[in-house]
Amino acid sequence: MEEAYVRLLCPECTKDWESTPNDLPRHDTVFHCPNCHASRRLAEFTRTERDLGTLKRLQ
Length: 59
Known about the structure:
Distance between the termini: 17 Å
Strand order of the largest sheet: 1-2
Number of strands: 4
Oligomer: single chain
Strand content: 15-25%
Largest sheet: 2 strands, antiparallel
């Protein structure tokens, strides 16, 4: 079975990275960018609606 990844993009510093849904908090939890430490709901860091749907479905 392939492991799913969610693509993330910081809306403030534009850092982009990937993570597995299991390594992330719930989509409605406040998340901090590892680069600039911006604080927003994790859902706002997902790159696309598909990434958000993957995150919600697999948590």
